[in-house]
Specification:
heterodimer; A: 197 residues; alpha+beta; globular; B: 783 residues; Multidrug efflux transporter AcrB transmembrane fold; 5-stranded antiparallel β-sheet; 4-stranded antiparallel β-sheet; 31 helices; 13 strands
C-alpha cells in the first residue's frame, strides 16, 4: 500500500514537472516551480563534505558528517570530523552541541542573523518560498536537471556578514550549498544523498 | 487614710506612665525582619542567616514591564534602567542592553590572559602553543567557525572561549529588541540589585517605591503598560505593609467589638474607660520594658504583644463583675494572681526562644500582664466610682447556672472529645508540623506565581546549593575561592556536580593574576616560540601580529581590581558572591546540580569531604532549602520544648497554690482537653501546625487557666450569688476573647489567622471544658 502510494506521489510530481517543463523554458523557470518540486521532499538523509576557506588559514578547513531533514522544520547537521559537533534545528530552537564541551541553545526568533542563515537551508529543503523571500532576493538559473538558486540577503545587517548563498541541485535534490562571506571568506558544502534501503 | 493611700498609688501610677511615655518617645521602632531571624546555633545556619541578610537573594528585585508592544516595552526597559542607575540606590541594573553586553564582551576579551583558567605553566611553550592553536583551528571547522574566526588572529589559543566556558550552564534571558524579555515574549524583564541590605526593609521600600515612581512618571508611555515586581525584598516590604495594615484594621475592629460588648454589660462609659486602663498601662510598660532590654522595639512585637496581653481586659471584667457583693476579696485576688502566674509561666517559653523577635514578645507580654494585674488590683479601686451602676445580671446568671449545672453532668464529653482529638493527632503524627515555610508567608498565591514566572524568565540562578567561607580580606577571599575551585573542578569532572560559580572567575586574586602574567613570554621569546609552534599549522606568523602585541600588553598591564569591573555584569557577579562585611569577607560559590529535579541532587557530604583538602577555615557546603527548613524546625522544637517546660512549671505552681493533686488536675484537665481539641480541629481542616499555632496554644493555656481556676476555687468557697456572678464574668470575658481573636482569625494573612482561630476556638473549648470539669462537686449538689 505504502509503496503504491509513494509511486503515485512521485508520478504526480513528475507529471507536474513534465507539464511545467514546456511552459517554463530552461532559462526562465520560476522559483515557485522549483519550490513545488522541493516541497515533495518529506524526509531526507545525506552526507556532506564542507570546506571553509578562511583568509588567514592557508588551506581550506574540511569537515565531514551527515545531514538529515524532516519536513518542514527538523534539520540535523552532525559533524563527525575533525571534531564532533551537532547542530539541531527543531521548530524555532537551534541547539549546538559540542560533546563534553558546551551545549548552546539559540532561539531563532531572538537571533535574526542566525535565523536568516538557517532559513536559507531549511527553506530550500522544505520548498518554503515565502520563508526564503522574507530574508532574501531569489534568483534561479539553470534547468530542472541542474539548477542554481542564488539568495541575496535583503537586510543590510545580514549583508554585512554574508553577501550571498548559492544552492545548486538537480530535480528535488540539493547538491551544493556555497556561502560567500562579506569579508571574502567562503565555504562550500557538497551534499550526497543517501538512498534509503 | 484610705484616700491618702489612693492618692499615693495614683501618683506612682501616673509617674510611671509618664516615665514610660517619655522613654517610648525616644525609642527606636524597627520593622526589619532580621529580628525574626533566629540567632543561629550552628555555623551553617549562621551562614544561612548571613545569606538572607547580606546576600544577593535579599537584594534582588525582579522587574517586569507588561502591556503595549514588544518594541515599546524594550524602550521602557532601557529608559527605566538608565534612570534607575542614576538614582544611586542600586548596585546594578541589568536588562540585557547592548551597551552592557558590549562592555562585557570587551571586558572578557581584553582581560583574557588574566582571566583564562588555561593560562598556566606550559601553555605558552612551543608545544603548548601548537596544541592550543591546532585546537582553535579545529574549532573553526564547526558551525560557529565563521564567527570564531574573527577572534582567531588576536586570540589563536582560544583563551576567550576557555574563560567563557566557565559560565556555560548559566542560562541567559531571551532578548527582544535589544532588551531582556520573558520566555513568552509578553513582558520585558530587568534585574535590579539594591545597595541597601535586604533586611533594611525601610530602604528596600524606598527602592521599590522609587522604581514605581520612575516608571509612573516616564513620558510617552504606551497606554496599558504596567510594571510588576518580585523578589525577597519586595515580599518583605509587601508583607510588612499587609501585616501592619491588617493588624491595624483588625485590631480596630476587635477593639470596637470589645467596647460594644463591655458597654452592653457595664452600661457606663466611665467603667468602660477604666476597664481599659489595665491593658493600656500594660502596653506602655511592656513597650518600655522591651525598649530598655533590647534598645529597640519591633513593629510586630507591638502588634502581636497587644493581642497577647488582651487577656488583661478580662481582669477588669472579673474585677467589676465579681467584686460586686464580694464578701471575701482575698480569695478573688489570690485566684487572679495565680492566673497571672500561670500565664507568665506560659509566656516565659517565648523569653528563652532563639528568635529575638519572640524574646521581645515574651518580655512585652510578661511585663504587660504584671502591670495590668497591679493596675487592676490597686489603681482601679482608687478610681472606681463609689456606686457601681452595673446592669443587673442576676437573671441571666441564674439561667447560666442552670445550664452549667446540666453541663456538669456531661463529664464524659470532654474526655471523649479529648480521646478523639488524641486519635486524630496520632493519625497525623507524621505531618503535624508544617515543613513548608511558604505557608507562613503572607504573600498571596498570585504573587508567588509571578515570582516563579519572573525567576524563570530571567534564568535567575537556583541558589540552593552553596559553598561558603569567610576570609579576613579580599585577596585571601579570592585565593580561597581559587583553591576551592580546584577541588570543585575535580567534582565536575567526576560528575558529582554540574558546575559552579566563583567571584574569582571574573576577578582572580592578585597572586593568580601575577602568576598568569608570569606565564606570558616576553616579546622576543613569544615571537620565537610562536614560530616553532606554527610548524605544521597552516597559519602564517604575519597574521598573528595582533596576538603578539596583545600578549605584551597583558604582560605589562596592572592587575585587575574590583573597580576595573564597573559597568559590566562581572561587577555584579563579584558583588553578589564576594560580600564585604564589618570584619571580614563572605565568599559564596553557588553549585549547579547535575539534575535539579532530583530530591537532593548533590551529595553534600562528598563535596564537603573534598573541600576539607583546601584547609580553608570554616568552609561549608549548604543546601539552603534543607538548611532553612531545618533551622525553623529546630527553632520550633525549641519553642515546643520550652512550652512543655512552661506547662510543667504551671503544674507545679498550681500544685503548690492549691495544695491538692486532685484540685490541680481538675484545673489542668480542661486545658489539656482544649489544647488537644484545637490541635485536632486545625489538623482536620487540612492545615499543618506552625510555630504560630504553638504561640496560640500557649495563649489558650494562659487564658483558659483563669477560667478553670475561678470555677475550681468557687467550687471550694463562696456563696451562690457570688458564684453566679463569677460565672457571668467568665462568659463575658470569654465572649470578648472569642470575638476579638475570631476577627483576627478572619484575616487573609496566615500568620494572623493561625493565632486568631487557635485562640478563639481554644478559649471557647477551655471555658466549656472548665465549666464541666473544674466546677466542682458543690455545683452538682446545688442542682
Amino acid at each position: 500500500m505504502k509503496i503504491l502510494e509513494k509511486t503515485r506521489f512521485s508520478a504526480i510530481a513528475w507529471l507536474v514537472l513534465v507539464l511545467a517543463a514546456p511552459v517554463a523554458r530552461a532559462d526562465d523557470w520560476q522559483p515557485s516551480q522549483l519550490m513545488h518540486i522541493l516541497s515533495q521532499n518529506k524526509t531526507g538523509r545525506a552526507t556532506f563534505v564542507e570546506k571553509k576557506y578562511i583568509g588567514i588559514i592557508e588551506h581550506p578547513i574540511v569537515s565531514t558528517g551527515d545531514l538529515s531533514f524532516i519536513s518542514p522544520d527538523k534539520l540535523e547537521k552532525r559533524t563527525l570530523t575533525p571534531r564532533p559537533e551537532s547542530l539541531i534545528l527543531n521548530g524555532g530552537i537551534l541547539t549546538i552541541d559540542q560533546p563534553g564541551k558546551r551545549r548552546m541553545t539559540v532561539s531563532l526568533e531572538e537571533h535574526p542573523e542566525v535565523s536568516a542563515f538557517i532559513e536559507s537551508i531549511r527553506g530550500t529543503l522544505a520548498g518554503d518560498l515565502s520563508a526564503l523571500e522574507k530574508f532574501y532576493a531569489l534568483k534561479l538559473t539553470g534547468s530542472v536537471e541542474k539548477w542554481q538558486l542564488v539568495l541575496i540577503p535583503r537586510q543590510e545587517r545580514m549583508r554585512s556578514i554574508f553577501s550571498r548563498i548559492r544552492i545548486g541541485g538537480s530535480h528535488a535534490d540539493v547538491k551544493t550549498i556555497d556561502l560567500d562571506q562579506s569579508d571574502g571568506d567562503h565555504s562550500e558544502m557538497v551534499i550526497t544523498k543517501v538512498i534509503s534501503q | 487614710m484610705r484616700s491618702n493611700r489612693h492618692r499615693l498609688i495614683l501618683a506612682i501610677w501616673l509617674a510611671t506612665l509618664l516615665a514610660c511615655a517619655l522613654l517610648i518617645a525616644r525609642t527606636k521602632f524597627v520593622s526589619d525582619l532580621s529580628a525574626f531571624m533566629p540567632k543561629a546555633p550552628s555555623e551553617r545556619q549562621q551562614l544561612l542567616v548571613d545569606q538572607f541578610r547580606d546576600g544577593i537573594i535579599a537584594r534582588l528585585i525582579m522587574i517586569g514591564i507588561e502591556g503595549g508592544d514588544a518594541a515599546g516595552r524594550a524602550r521602557l526597559s532601557h529608559e527605566l534602567a538608565n534612570k534607575l542607575r542614576k538614582t544611586g540606590l542600586f548596585v546594578g541594573v541589568q536588562n540585557g542592553d547592548p551597551a552592557t553586553e558590549q562592555r562585557d564582551r570587551a571586558f572578557f576579551f581584553d582581560n583574557r590572559y588574566l582571566l583564562s583558567p588555561d593560562v598556566a605553566p606550559g601553555r605558552f611553550t612551543p608545544q603548548g602553543l601548537h596544541a592550543a592553536i591546532s585546537d582553535s583551528i579545529d574549532a573553526l571547522s564547526g558551525d560557529a567557525g565563521l564567527i570564531l574566526k574573527k577572534l582567531f588572529p588576536r586570540d589563536p589559543t582560544g583563551e576567550t572561549l576557555q574563560l567563557l566556558a566557565q559560565f556555560s550552564g548559566d542560562s541567559q534571558p531571551k532578548s527582544m529588541h535589544g532588551a531582556w524579555a520573558s520566555r513568552d515574549g509578553k513582558r520585558a524583564v530587568l534585574l535590579a540589585y539594591t545597595r541597601a541590605a535586604g533586611t533594611d526593609t525601610e530602604a528596600q521600600s524606598h527602592a521599590i517605591n522609587t522604581i514605581r515612581q520612575i516608571f509612573g512618571s516616564m513620558p510617552d508611555r504606551q497606554a496599558g503598560t504596567r510594571i510588576v515586581m518580585s523578589g525577597t525584598s519586595v515580599f518583605s516590604v509587601q508583607s510588612r505593609d499587609t501585616i501592619e495594615g491588617e493588624v491595624t484594621r483588625l485590631a480596630a475592629a476587635s477593639l470596637l467589638l470589645v467596647v460594644c460588648l463591655l458597654l452592653l454589660v457595664y452600661r457606663s462609659a466611665t467603667l468602660l474607660v477604666l476597664g481599659l486602663l489595665p491593658v493600656l498601662s500594660g502596653a506602655l510598660v511592656g513597650i518600655t520594658a522591651v525598649s530598655l532590654t533590647y534598645g529597640q522595639v519591633h513593629g510586630l512585637t507591638l502588634g502581636f504583644g497587644t493581642t497577647l496581653i488582651g487577656e488583661a481586659v478580662d481582669y477588669s471584667i472579673y474585677f467589676y463583675l465579681q467584686r460586686a457583693g464580694q464578701v471575701n476579696p482575698g480569695n478573688f485576688w489570690r485566684t487572679i494572681w495565680l492566673g497571672v502566674l500561670t500565664s507568665i509561666s506560659g509566656f516565659a517559653a517565648l523569653l528563652f526562644s532563639g528568635f529575638p523577635g519572640l524574646n521581645q514578645l515574651g518580655v512585652y507580654s510578661i511585663s504587660g500582664l504584671i502591670t495590668a494585674a497591679i493596675v487592676t488590683r490597686h489603681v482601679l479601686p482608687a478610681l472606681m466610682p463609689r456606686q457601681l451602676n452595673l446592669r443587673d445580671l442576676s437573671r441571666p446568671g441564674l439561667v447560666l447556672d442552670g445550664i452549667l449545672n446540666r453541663a456538669t453532668r456531661m463529664r464524659w464529653l470532654p474526655a471523649l472529645l479529648a480521646l478523639a482529638a488524641g486519635g486524630i493527632i496520632l493519625a497525623h503524627a507524621d505531618n503535624i508540623w508544617n515543613r513548608n515555610l511558604s505557608t507562613l508567608s503572607p504573600i498571596p498565591k498570585a504573587d508567588q506565581e509571578l515570582d516563579l514566572q519572573l525567576r524563570g524568565d530571567l534564568g535567575a540562578p537556583d541558589l540552593r546549593f552553596m559553598v561558603a567561607f569567610t576570609a579576613p580580606d579580599e585577596e585571601k577571599a579570592l585565593q580561597g575561592a581559587e583553591q576551592a575551585a580546584t577541588v570543585l573542578r575535580g567534582l565536575v569532572q567526576d560528575q558529582a556536580i554540574a558546575g559552579f560559580n566563583s567571584p574569582a572567575f571574573v576577578l582572580p586574586s592578585l597572586a593568580l593574576q601575577r602568576a598568569r602574567q608570569a606565564e606570558l613570554p616576553d616579546a622576543g621569546q613569544a615571537r620565537q616560540r610562536l614560530r616553532q609552534a606554527l610548524v605544521g599549522i597552516p597559519v602564517r606568523m604575519k597574521h598573528l601580529q595582533g596576538f603578539l602585541s596583545d600578549l605584551q600588553a597583558a604582560r605589562a598591564r596592572k592587575p585587575l581590581l574590583r573597580a576595573d569591573l564597573d559597568g559590566t555584569s562581572a561587577a555584579l557577579l563579584v558583588d553578589s558572591l564576594l560580600i564585604k562585611r564589618d570584619k571580614d569577607y563572605l565568599v559564596l560559590m553557588p553549585l549547579r546540580a547535575m539534575d535539579s529535579r532530583a530530591g537532593s541532587p548533590i551529595d553534600l557530604d562528598r563535596v564537603q569531604a573534598a573541600l576539607q583538602s583546601t584547609r580553608l577555615p570554616h568552609i561549608v557546603v549548604i543546601d539552603l532549602l534543607e538548611e532553612s527548613t531545618r533551622l525553623f524546625e529546630n527553632y520550633r522544637n525549641e519553642v515546643l520544648l520550652l512550652s512543655e517546660l512552661g506547662c510543667l512549671v504551671i503544674f507545679v505552681l498550681l500544685l503548690a497554690a492549691l495544695k491538692s493533686l486532685s484540685r490541680t488536675l481538675r484545673v489542668i484537665a480542661p486545658l489539656i482537653c482544649a489544647v488537644a481539641c484545637v490541635a485536632a480541629v486545625v489538623l482536620l481542616s487540612g492545615t499543618h501546625l506552625t510555630i504560630l499555632h504553638l504561640v496560640g496554644l500557649l495563649l489558650v493555656v494562659a487564658i483558659g487557666s483563669n477560667y478553670a481556676l475561678f470555677f475550681e476555687v468557687s467550687g471550694q468557697a463562696g456563696t451562690q450569688p457570688e458564684r453566679r456572678q463569677m460565672q457571668i464574668s467568665l462568659v463575658v470575658a470569654n465572649l470578648t476573647t472569642v470575638g476579638s481573636f475570631g476577627i483576627l482569625g478572619l484575616s487573609k494573612i496566615p500568620v494572623l489567622s493561625a493565632i486568631g482561630t487557635t485562640v478563639s476556638l481554644g478559649t471557647l473549648f477551655a471555658l466549656v471544658f472548665s465549666a464541666i470539669l473544674s466546677r466542682g462537686r458543690s455545683g452538682l449538689q446545688s442542682a
